[in-house]
Amino acid sequence: MSSEFTPQDGSCSCYSNTYTINHEPIVRFVCHCTICQDYTGKAYNDVTVLLKSDLSELNIDKTRFRRWKMPPNISRGLCKYCHKPSIEMAVGGNLVLVPTDNYPNPDALPEPSMHLFYNRRVNDIDDGLPKYEGFVQSQTMASKALAQGLYKRVAKR
Q: What is the value of pTM for the model shown?
């Protein structure tokens, strides 16, 4: 990844829901929880986390949001047409999670920093990244990574 982030136009797989990502993600991780498996239809969700203000031209009218589990921490959006992940919202819509499959150039993204809910994995992954298991450990490490990413962003100002 270059040191300067180039904006990218993200979308679901059929391009019915689109948005422009204007800032480097705060954090990127791979989640193996069963909710992400159900949401993506894959063994895991490789996802980036951004602030809502990092996106523009948000055209997600054709996204149907659903909450899989209570408390509803994350609203996961599926395209009404292709039924693929579009975008996810958390913390009252102030945090946005974008699956890396929705970027046209995922090679320009930072590498994932960790695996979450690794105890729910379908297959072992030997990539040298830290692997966290269970709810408490996974949520703690995701929160820590988010806080560190936000701190780095503020410190750059």
A: 0.91
